[in-house]
Write a structure and sequence with these properties.
Strand order of the largest sheet: 3-4-5-6-9-10-11-12-13-14
Low-confidence stretches: 348-356
Distance between the termini: 45 Å
Number of strands: 14
Radius of gyration: 21 Å
Strand content: 15-25%
Length: about 350
């Protein structure tokens, strides 16, 4: 018998389940609180439930496990990286970043990724599978329990493309912001997409208030196609119209993510083309000096050139920042820690995985 994934039920669904198995309505409130507020890992922890009910729950349902198998703590800034193993043996990564305004967690939405962006370690090896809402939530829950501190901001920018796991992702957002759970404000949730146009438009109509971050990475259609296979399916003009549609429907300004690759997309014509794209939009541009990986020959520009690129964009009226590098002494880039462990299991050396 395959047990049901109880942590992926929203509050209403859990109420219906408890009614189905003959339990009173208030039990669903107690169980939901144990799962999503007290962050229980087992039914045995639910001490205000009868032994019989705990046994019944354990027979029909599972609290799907997300097991920490590696934990790296940066010595240069308050950043921690976690490698979690799912119940089927797949691995995912999460990152905790501590700021003055609160704790931010970056989570994964898929095990692997099929988007194929050429500068990203997460996509090497392709997509294994989508994550369930419970598996996205429990990355946050485990980090909150391990750190002993509340998470106030969530970024869905780890391994995977959230809009390629659309239904589970949207359900996760509703559950994360639900008043019966952690109740994290949707305005404190950011999700990154490489530009799946139909689902960007669907998301605009969901009535959510999350921030959408578009992985732009190229100042023209041709440059995007060289870096991002998804650009072969969706023209940049279509993607930008979908961004405008999201802003028009939600009032939430778009963040454009732009990985700076030395000699590839950090040239004067990129400044001109980016200015043309962004100047008339209510948006923010986030420059990210690329994190080199062994399987690709991309290099990050030096700090002086990155600052010059930023300053010229600012002079052209663009709201722009360079993302502060966090966790530079640990496997900071998406996919690196997961890749390192996968290679170690096969007996490969670290230097065959990535350049830190």
């Amino acid at each position: 018998m395959n047990k049901k994934d109880i942590c992926s039920y929203n509050y209403e669904e859990l109420q219906n389940e408890m009614q189905r198995i003959g339990e009173k309505a208030f039990r669903s409130r107690q169980i939901y609180e144990w799962l999503h507020v007290k962050l229980a890992d087992t039914f045995e922890e639910m001490t205000n439930l009868s032994k019989g009910l705990r046994e019944k729950l354990d027979f029909e349902y599972e609290i799907r496990q997300v097991k920490m198998i590696d934990h790296q703590v940066s010595k240069v800034d308050p950043t921690e990286k976690f490698l979690f193993e799912l119940s089927d043996g797949n691995m995912i990564e999460s990152v905790l970043m501590k700021y003055n305004y609160g704790n931010s967690v970056c989570i994964s939405s898929q095990a692997g990724c099929r988007m194929g962006c050429r500068f990203c370690a997460s996509t090497i090896g392709g997509l294994e599978r989508n994550l369930e809402p419970s598996e996205m939530l429990r990355q946050i829950y485990h980090i909150q329990k391990i750190s002993g501190e509340r998470v106030s901001n969530v970024v869905v920018m780890g391994t995977g493309e959230p809009l390629d796991n659309y239904d589970n992702f949207v359900k996760f957002i509703h559950m994360l912001s639900d008043e019966h759970g952690l109740h994290i404000s949707q305005r404190n949730i950011t999700a990154s997409t490489c530009g799946i146009v139909p689902n960007m438009r669907r998301l605009a109509e969901e009535g959510l208030q999350i921030t959408l971050a578009l992985s732009l990475h190229g100042s023209s259609q041709e440059k995007r196609k060289k870096l991002m296979p998804v650009a072969n399916k969706y023209e940049l003009s279509e993607v930008l119209k979908a961004c405008d549609y999201y802003f028009a429907n939600t009032g939430r300004r778009i963040t454009f993510e732009y990985s700076l690759v030395k000699g590839v997309n950090d040239q004067p014509d990129d400044i001109r083309e980016l200015t043309e794209i962004l100047k008339k939009r209510n948006c923010h541009l986030n420059l990210i000096p690329v994190n080199p990986i062994k399987e690709r020959d991309f290099q990050k520009p030096d700090r002086k050139n990155a600052l010059e690129f930023k300053n010229k964009l600012e002079k052209n009226g663009i709201n722009v920042t360079i993302r502060r590098e966090r966790g530079s002494d640990i496997d900071g880039a998406c996919g690196q820690l997961r890749r390192r462990h996968a290679a170690a299991d096969k007996g490969e050396a670290d230097e065959n995985i990535c350049n830190d």
